[in-house]
Specification:
Elements: E1 11-14, H1 22-25, E2 32-36, H2 40-43, H3 46-53, E3 59-62, H4 71-83, E4 88-93, H5 95-107, H6 117-120, E5 131-135, E6 147-152, E7 157-162, E8 170-173, H7 183-199, H8 209-231, H9 236-249, H10 263-275, H11 279-293, H12 295-310, H13 317-334, H14 351-362, H15 375-384
Parallel strand pairs: 1-8, 2-3, 2-4, 4-5, 5-8
Antiparallel strand pairs: 6-7
Helix pairs in contact: 4-5, 7-8, 7-9, 7-11, 8-9, 10-11, 11-13, 11-15, 12-13, 14-15
Bound molecules: 5,6-dihydroxy-NADP and zinc ion.
5,6-dihydroxy-NADP (NZQ) binds at residues 37-41, 44, 67-68, 93-97, 99, 136-137, 139-142, 145, 147-149, 177, 180-181, 185, 188, 192, 250, 265, 279.
Length: 386
């Protein structure tokens, strides 16, 4: 097992009815910006619950953060905070709203000319306003991690950054919020959290026995409850297990002491930036082809995964590993998620070349746990995914 340092300061308030506790968690004198998305919270009762809990507080609302949060919109929220001298951000939404809020709390304190540089140049974030979240869509793990991803449609860019300064102080995880999620978003949540787990597991063995079992526990639970939540999001037990899996899949616990990859995400973000495909679906398009190309480096873990998650016990390591890839693609398809780029767009020609060009330009010359997946490999992976 590799050495590690791990600190996660986010407090979790988990369960039915926890939104009512917002008042006791947010400092009494806080001047709050309440950030939300396109309005789902006004239709499903979450907005009312939040406002009821914050009764008597000074709250300024800012709605309209789109999926794949847009830089220009987030900068409008930064202006509101500065103009109205607000000092606390409460994000009520899915990954997009929470990621957007993380960017906002950092951008408010940014001293340079152009906050986009926080992403474009990955400038270090030294300070940020305090942030808390009410999660409405289990998927990204953003509610308990220091990362965020922001898009700029004008230039078809989607870039990420991270800083301990933007960890939410606390997050409310009420599993009943998933009752209003459409099937598409429920499937996305299962697909994204499954891939988060794989990014931190499907590398090579380093004797992280417990980390492997943690990851396998999440994968097994997701295969068990995935279909159930999609069919019946009112089943509280499944919803609670699903929600907690999503948070644990990316609060960095399972990554400690073991190698991580994140190559599938790096390529997937480009498919969203270029074609507007839902984040989770880009991962399903890339992962089988990525694992095929990286087969030699990953075959031992692929075989272990095939055995422990999919009960494939016959055959050589190579045969089991190949079955592991087949099962992964079938799992995504069983969620109703297509796994070819041409299922989503007719304009896929040139995508592979453009992504390889972007990676070369950014100096991303080696992805993966061995930093040896080159732009030429990326070109091949994406072409194989057409
Ligand atoms: O905007 P509203 O009207 O709220 O509708 C949203 C949105 O249209 C809707 N929704 C959310 N909660 C709902 C609901 N509809 C009904 N009932 C509810 N309870 O769902 C739609 C999608 O929401 P979004 O927040 O975009 O989805 P998700 O949580 O999948 O977030 C995706 C974003 O997170 C980034 C992705 O790249 C993408 O930009 N990620 C963030 C990560 C992180 N911070 O660690 C890691 C991930 O790998 C990912 O990259
Ligand atoms: Zn993801």
């Amino acid at each position: 097992m590799n050495n590690f340092e791990y600190k996660n300061p986010t407090k979790i308030l988990f369960g039915k009815g926890q939104i009512a506790n917002l008042d006791k968690e947010i400092p009494q004198n806080a001047k709050i910006l309440m950030l939300y998305g396109g309005g789902s919270i006004k239709r499903n009762g979450i907005y009312e619950q939040v406002m009821q809990a914050l009764n008597e507080r000074e709250v300024v609302e800012f709605g309209g953060v789109p999926a794949n949060p847009e830089y220009e919109v987030l900068m409008q929220a930064v202006s509101v905070i500065k103009e109205q001298k607000l000092d606390y951000v409460l994000a009520v939404g899915g990954g997009s709203v929470i990621d957007g809020a993380k960017f906002i709390v950092a951008a408010v304190k940014y001293k340079g000319d152009e906050p986009w540089n926080l992403l474009a140049n990955r400038e270090e974030i030294k300070e940020a306003l305090p942030l808390a979240t009410v999660l409405t869509l289990p998927a990204t793990g953003s509610e308990m991690n220091p990362r965020f991803v922001v898009s700029r449609r004008a230039t078809k860019q989607k870039l990420s950054s991270a800083s301990p300064a933007v960890f939410p102080q606390f997050s409310v995880l009420d599993p009943t919020v998933i009752e209003s999620l459409p099937e598409r978003q429920l499937a996305n949540g299962v697909a994204d959290s499954f891939m988060h787990t794989l990014e931190q597991y499907m590398t090579y063995p380093v004797g992280g026995l417990l980390q492997d079992r943690f990851a396998e526990g999440i994968l097994q639970t997701l295969t068990e409850v995935g279909q159930r939540v999609i069919k019946n999001p009112r089943d509280y037990e499944s919803a609670a297990n699903f929600m907690w899996c999503c948070t644990l899949a990316l609060n960095d616990l399972i990554a400690q002491g073991v190698p991580s990859d994140w190559g599938v995400h790096a390529i997937g973000h480009e498919l969203t930036a270029l074609h507007g495909i839902d984040h989770a679906r880009t991962l399903a398009i890339i992962v089988p082809r990525y694992y095929e190309l990286c087969f030699e480096y990953k075959k031992e873990k692929l075989a272990q995964y095939a055995e422990r998650i999919w009960s494939i016990t016959d055959g050589t390591i190579e045969e089991k590993a190949k079955q592991g890839i087949v099962k992964t693609e079938e799992f995504y398809q069983s969620l109703g998620i297509a796994t070819k780029l041409s299922d989503y767009t007719d304009y896929y020609e040139g995508t592979a070349e453009e992504i390889a060009r972007r990676f070369t330009e950014r100096g991303w010359l080696g992805l993966g746990e061995h930093r040896n997946v080159t732009p030429d490999d990326v070109l091949e992976i994406v072409k194989n995914a057409y």
